[in-house]
Design a protein that fits this description.
Strand content of chain A: 15-25%
Largest sheet of chain A: 6 strands, mixed
Order of helices and strands of chain B: HHHHHHHHHH
Keywords (chain B): Cell membrane, Membrane, Transmembrane, Transmembrane helix
Helix content of chain B: over 70%
Mean pLDDT of chain B: 89
Shape of chain A: globular
Oligomer: heterodimer
Low-confidence stretches of chain B: none
Number of strands of chain B: 0
Structural class of chain A: alpha/beta
Protein name (chain B): ABC-2 type transport system permease protein
Strand content of chain B: under 5%
InterPro entries (chain B): ABC-2_transporter_component
Radius of gyration of chain B: 20 Å
Radius of gyration of chain A: 18 Å
Number of helices of chain B: 10
Main location (chain B): membrane
GO cellular component, one term (chain B): plasma membrane
Number of domains of chain A: 2
Largest interface: A-B, 31 and 24 residues
Order of helices and strands of chain A: HEEEHEEHEHHHEHEHEEHH
Number of strands of chain A: 10
Chain lengths: ~260, ~250
């Protein structure tokens, strides 16, 4: 077990060294709803095996940004490229590389966990002969073993959230976008989800939004703070640690002054 | 792409059959149709001796099967909105549409998948009606041409109802409003015939039931056939455009 994990780490660091390519590029991304501009000129770049945390008060435009990055919402202006594929010109090609957990997990509550995950796998063109292995693997990663036959409606909020995450990673995407993945979970579950994100972050690019600052400190490599639709602060966490700055103070400083 | 259409169709069918609604509908339509069937059979047996004296007497198919399919169309008109209401409205409401939109599939695939899933259900309904008709073979011969024309008519009619239901369902996130809207539009299209009958205008051509009547009489009219196909295509394209529009305008 330890051996395989360390070899996985080796592989991922090697991948990082060799490829080190950019997986997500967003340039000048803006979105207006009528007269209200929800997101203004957001630039974003993410490399493989990087975890980016999006922070900001409610209504700052985090979810809107994520909807645009996943092709759920067309930007008013700007461009998005996922693994070199333009999301607006070739949406199907770009969406192949994305796994997305929206704010409300998109679950069909009348289905069982297995039925639901099977459907998600088929939607993403997972090879039919491999579906079973993929299902077993994703359930192990998300701690869903033994509840495959249960109806999703009968699961607790925490388990439903995990099914949502399982859905996002089932096709092994290179870019994973998680909108508040740890909301509604108990402290143990939050720790498990963090471990999962860390593990996924070794091989994929992850963007996650959260209100929990300690979550950012524990799993993210970089952080962006948004307020009123604009990115007001952007840094690498290593830099933050080096300068011994406190994320909470920075957050307050950048999000309260505009109120 | 075509593979994913079936994946979505399968999901729709699964969701349909885990709810009691589909089963209730199947039971209801079977009950009503069998009732008509038995009633007409009774009338036919009573009248048979008199009918024999006419030069060109109507057969069992005409007396029993034709009215049965006519009633089936009315039951479909009333019940289709209840089955199609949740097709897209519920996906908006439960935010599950995100799963479909985030997947590498086109809006056309989503719409066709949903349409196909619902059509499999209505093919099943038609099949049950046809099997019931075939039970007449136990006591004599049948006009198979008339039966086929009726079955084709019923399939085209239900496809038109589903296309309308699918479109209206994409306009709202409240299934109940989708059901009411669909019922209203279908009724209007039905009544178009009655309203326009005095004027003999273009409006008359938009009556779905009028086109169905020609199939009902055993007449596969090219105009009616083309009308149904165009009608179905129009509403499917409107639905696709609506889903694309939602992404653009949010």
């Amino acid at each position: 077990m330890i051996n395989s994990e360390s070899s996985l780490e080796n592989v991922s660091t090697r991948v990082q060294e060799v490829v080190s390519d950019v997986t997500v590029t967003a340039h000048n991304l803006s979105r207006r709803f009528g007269n209200h501009s929800a997101v203004r000129k957001v630039d974003l770049e993410l490399k493989r095996s990087e975890v980016l945390g999006l922070l900001g008060p409610n209504g700052a435009g985090k979810s809107t940004t994520m909807q645009m990055l996943t092709g759920n919402l067309a930007p008013t202006s700007g461009s998005v490229q996922i693994c070199g594929v333009d999301l607006i010109k070739n949406p199907l090609g770009a969406k192949r590389h994305i796994g997305y957990l929206p704010e409300n997990p998109p679950l069909y509550k009348e289905l069982t966990v297995d039925e639901y995950l099977q459907f998600a796998a088929r939607l993403h063109n997972v090879d039919l002969s491999k579906t079973n292995d993929v299902l077993i693997d994703v359930k192990r990663r998300c701690g869903l073993e033994g509840i495959g036959k249960r109806l999703i409606s009968a699961l607790s909020k925490g388990f439903q959230q995990r099914v949502g995450i399982a859905q996002a990673i089932i096709h092994r995407p290179e870019v994973i976008i998680l909108d508040e993945p740890s909301v509604g979970l108990d402290p143990n579950q939050i720790r498990e989800i963090r471990d999962l994100i860390k593990e996924l972050g070794k091989s994929c690019s992850i963007i996650l939004s959260t209100h929990n600052l300690s979550e950012v400190e524990s799993v993210c490599d970089r952080v962006k703070i948004m307020n009123h639709g604009v990115v007001v602060y952007s840094t690498a966490l290593a830099e933050l640690k080096q300068k011994a700055l406190n994320l909470e103070q920075i957050f307050e400083q950048y999000t309260l002054k505009n109120e | 792409m075509s593979k994913i259409v079936f994946v979505i169709a399968r999901k729709e069918l699964k969701l349909l059959f885990v709810s009691p609604l589909a089963w209730t509908f199947l039971a209801l339509i079977q009950l009503i149709i069998t009732w008509v069937f038995l009633g007409r059979l009774d009338a036919f047996l009573e009248l048979q001796s008199q009918l024999m004296q006419i030069a060109n007497p109507p057969g069992a198919t005409e007396v029993i099967i034709v009215p049965m399919f006519a009633v089936a169309s009315i039951v479909l008109l009333m019940a289709t909105p209840l089955l199609t209401m949740r097709l897209i409205a519920e996906e908006w409401r439960n935010r599950t549409m995100v799963l479909l939109i985030s997947a590498p599939i086109s809006m056309t695939t989503i719409v066709l998948g949903k349409f196909l899933g619902m059509m499999v259900f209505f093919l099943l309904t038609t099949l049950l009606t046809v099997i019931l008709s075939l039970s007449l073979l136990a006591g004599g011969t049948m006009d198979f041409g008339l039966l086929v024309s009726n079955a084709v008519g019923l399939i085209l009619l239900s496809a038109s109802f589903v296309a309308v239901g699918l479109y209206i369902s994409s306009l709202t996130s409240h299934p109940a409003i989708a059901a009411l809207g669909t019922l209203g539009l279908l009724l209007a299209l039905w009544i178009a015939d009655i309203v326009a009958s005095d004027f003999n205008t273009v409006i008359q051509n938009f009556s779905l039931l009028r086109h169905y009547e020609s199939f009902n009489r055993g007449l596969i009219d090219t105009f009616s056939l083309v009308f149904f196909v165009l009608f179905i295509l129009t509403f499917l394209i409107l639905t696709i455009r609506r889903l694309d529009g939602e992404r653009l305008h949010g």
